[in-house]
Amino acid sequence: MSSQLHVKFLKTMYKLVVDNFLAVAAMAAAATVFQRTSPEEVLAQARAVRPVHWLLALLVAAGVATLRRMRRPKDVYLVEYGCFRPKPCYRAPFATCKEHAHLMPYLVDEESVSFALRLLERSGLGEETCVPEAYHYMPPDRSLKASRDETELVIFSAVDDVFARSGVKPSEIDVLIVNCSIFTPTPVFADMVINRYKLRADVQNVNLSGMGCSAGMVSVGLAKNLLQVARPGTNVLIVSTEILSSQYYVGKERAMLLPNCLFRMGAAAMILSNSAERARFKLGRVVRTVTAARDHDYRCVFQEEDEQGNTGIRLSKDLATTAGHALKSNIAAFGPLVLPVSEQVLVAVSLLKRKLLSGRAKVRLYRPDFTTAFEHFCIHAGGRGVIDEVQHGLGLSDDDVEASRMTLHRFGNTSSSSVLYELAYIEAKGRMKKGDRVWMISFGAGFDCNSVSWECVKPATDADGPWADSVNRYPVQLPEIVKDI
């Protein structure tokens, strides 16, 4: 026990010294100067400097500081966010899913039904996840009207929530970004929001599609680029969702049945600004990694028709592994931007050691401790396997990934909006404090991996969000999985 405490003490001292190297060096230099020079001599030297020289030095320092401030990109802030909270009438408990599957034998065969039910039981989803009204019909209503109805329900609920919570008025929105991967009607979602909330005629708007579950974080990166060159006080409204009604797969391909089992209805809205007024979080680093140049990654999440002509999304059995590889590439770019110097030094030493001992010994690279850079982690709730892969790759504890697992259990995979449900879970639990740092990780078709960091400016004053009626029941114990499907 004493040896463990000794090692922990040495690690703590190492981090303090290395992370504060400049301060330590300055203190050492100052101590050396004062040892050699008495305070009276220092004061006499200061008095010997002519006032005009002091004034010139101050002017130069002020000029350098002003120039640096002008050249620095504008800070971007998250003013508020809101999430769609489905009513209990949309619930899809396992018993209902089983009953509906057996009442539609002409859509899927018995073997496919058994596979889907086993997958659902092992997926990490709970009994309260919700599907759109169209899924409650037999057969499911895959019409354009059903999709529009779902769109208006989830998007308008999330936007109403963010306007109510932030106090921002629709007339104050300067830019609108809406993302939905598959369903893209005409007029597009952005026009639908503009029409509903009567946004200004000069509002800039962008509608993103086909980018999968990573589109929400891609939207944040786009908003950041726009806000850093926009006039002060510019507000951006981001809406992230995935519309399921028209996407129900009615074939037998197992890889294409997975989305039916994992995806659930949801939406989130965010208001970003380059003004710190009313800000709740400050945006940090945004890093996007695209691995679509590799054929295997490109087809990992792929929309196509099966042999019977049924359209669906094919999810590769190597999805979790592909996500892990994309995450490694993303970390290589993201890590140096957020990790403290002490962790970067250890990574550099292990890389140097591997290069010097190449061929003579197998050197294991040092895995950086990201808990030194972040207090909270929001990993896209794409499935139990994806969360497991990221947890193992980053060396995170069960507490670190609790928000991701509980979001998957309560709401299912809500695609690009899932990380906002996870952030809401952390705040509903009262765990967010001023100055806390958050790392959001999302994955999407392409294959994409996105990392976004935030720093809390002002924690939520209440838990009146998507978890308002259920947070007290969480966390829950998830069943052990003996073997993955």
Automatic annotation (TrEMBL):
An example molecular function term from Gene Ontology annotations: fatty acid elongase activity
Domain Beta-ketoacyl-[acyl-carrier-protein] synthase III C-terminal: from-to ranges: 375-455
Domain of life: Eukaryota
Signal sequence annotation: none
Recorded coiled-coil stretches: none
GO biological process: fatty acid biosynthetic process
Alphabetical keyword list: Acyltransferase, Transferase
Residues of the FAE domain: 69-356
EC number, as in UniProt: 2.3.1.199
Keyword Transferase on entry: yes
Transmembrane segments: none
First-tier enzyme category under EC: transferase
SUPFAM superfamilies from the UniProt entry: Thiolase-like
Entry's Gene Ontology cellular component terms: membrane
Entry's family note: Belongs to the thiolase-like superfamily. Chalcone/stilbene synthases family.
PANTHER family tied to this protein: 3-KETOACYL-COA SYNTHASE (PTHR31561)
Protein name according to UniProt: very-long-chain 3-oxoacyl-CoA synthase
Species name: Eragrostis curvula (weeping love grass)
